[in-house]
């Protein structure tokens, strides 16, 4: 390795790991922005009840944040699984192995959902604790206070400092609750990682892919048969229309067109010929004889 272009006055040191700096104000906190920034409903809940948001509240934005942040273990495209299972449900329920696949991946979605809920509840509680400390204990975040008052004007009269006893009770509650949420999140995380790293998961995943391929193949066959039937039906309709249009004839004494199909026209002609032969058997011969009789020729008018 060449150090020809390196500076001799600088010593080479390993790069120190970078750490995420805490925002100067809670207003700049990512979780606060998702749950409370500009959200009058959630801010009023906080000011009136002094309780954190949980899974019973609307945490959809926080769920998306947890999902986008990634999860431990192998990466899985969860978005495709529900649609795939829903589309193949009837196909998979026809076999024992298919039912097992449905049950297995339904459990995977439940485990992954449990991880998201527990993680989101822990994040929501953490930002709640930060808000209480910034507004009622330390009272050192003027930007946060101004932001809340702009959304809820009467908050200027309700944001008061905690007494020593209130502070002690809150810290005890915060410590106990945080530990409970951390334990629940750790259990959910462990369950998800074990599920995805188990030996059964790759086998089940390959079976799901194979089932999807077979299902798509059968769907293609069904679509081909349906398209063929539609084509045959259209051809029959077009043929019938052509036959109907070919039978348009004009009758004497009528100003319009009277439709006759080709087979009806042919049957009428046949009936007339048969009837004529039956009642006038020599009609054709007399016409030929008359045409040969010189007496029937027109008398010349020129002299």
Which regions contain 5 or more consecutive residues with pLDDT less than 50? Answer: 1-18
From the N-terminal CA to the C-terminal CA, the straight-line distance is: 134 Å
Tell me the number of helical segments per DSSP (H or I, 4 or more residues long).
11
Classify the secondary structure makeup into a structural class.
Answer: mainly alpha
Q: Overall pLDDT, averaged?
A: 78
Order of helices and strands: HHHHHHHHHEEHH
What is the radius of gyration? 44 Å
- Major sheet size, sense and barrel closure: 2 strands, antiparallel
Outline:
67% of the residues lie in helices and 1% in strands. The protein is mostly helical and 303 residues long. The chain has a domain of 173 residues.
Textual characterization of the structure:
- The chain is mainly α and 303 residues long.
- The protein has a domain at 26-198.
- It has helices at residues 30-35, 40-49, 60-69, 80-92, 96-137, 142-151, 155-158, 164-197, 200-246, 262-279, 283-292, and strands spanning 248-249, 258-259.
- Strands 1-2 form a two-stranded antiparallel sheet.
- Helix 4 (80-92) runs antiparallel to helix 5, helix 5 packs antiparallel against helix 8 and helix 5 (96-137) packs across helix 9.
- The longest helix is centred in the last third of the chain and has 47 residues, at 200-246.
Give the SSE layout.
Layout: H1 30-35, H2 40-49, H3 60-69, H4 80-92, H5 96-137, H6 142-151, H7 155-158, H8 164-197, H9 200-246, E1 248-249, E2 258-259, H10 262-279, H11 283-292
Antiparallel strand pairs: 1-2
């Amino acid at each position: 390795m060449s150090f020809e272009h390196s500076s001799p006055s600088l010593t080479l040191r390993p790069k120190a790991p970078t750490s995420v700096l805490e925002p100067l104000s809670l207003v700049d906190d990512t979780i606060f922005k998702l749950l409370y920034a500009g959200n009058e409903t959630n801010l009023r809940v906080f000011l009136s009840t002094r309780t954190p948001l949980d899974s019973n509240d609307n945490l959809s934005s926080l769920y998306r944040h947890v999902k986008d942040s990634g999860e431990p273990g192998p990466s899985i495209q969860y978005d495709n699984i529900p649609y795939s299972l829903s589309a193949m449900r009837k196909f998979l329920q026809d076999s024992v192995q298919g039912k097992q696949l449905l049950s297995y991946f339904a459990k995977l979605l439940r485990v992954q959902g449990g991880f998201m809920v527990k993680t989101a509840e822990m994040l929501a509680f953490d930002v709640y604790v930060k808000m209480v400390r910034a507004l009622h204990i330390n009272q050192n975040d003027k930007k946060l206070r101004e932001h809340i008052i702009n959304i809820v004007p009467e908050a200027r009269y309700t944001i008061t400092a905690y007494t020593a006893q209130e502070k002690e009770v809150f810290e005890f509650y915060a410590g106990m609750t945080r530990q409970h949420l951390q334990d629940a999140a750790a259990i959910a995380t462990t369950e998800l990682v074990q599920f995805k790293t188990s030996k059964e998961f790759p086998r089940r995943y390959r079976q799901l892919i194979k089932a999807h391929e077979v299902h798509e193949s059968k769907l293609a066959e069904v679509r081909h048969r349906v398209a063929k039937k539609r084509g045959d039906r259209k051809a029959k309709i077009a043929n019938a229309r052509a036959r109907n249009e070919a039978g348009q004839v004009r009758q004497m004494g009528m100003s319009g067109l009277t439709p006759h199909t080709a087979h009806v026209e042919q049957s009428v002609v046949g009936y007339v010929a048969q009837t004529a032969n039956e009642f006038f058997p020599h009609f054709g011969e007399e016409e030929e004889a008359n045409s040969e009789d010189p007496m029937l020729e027109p008398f010349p008018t020129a002299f």
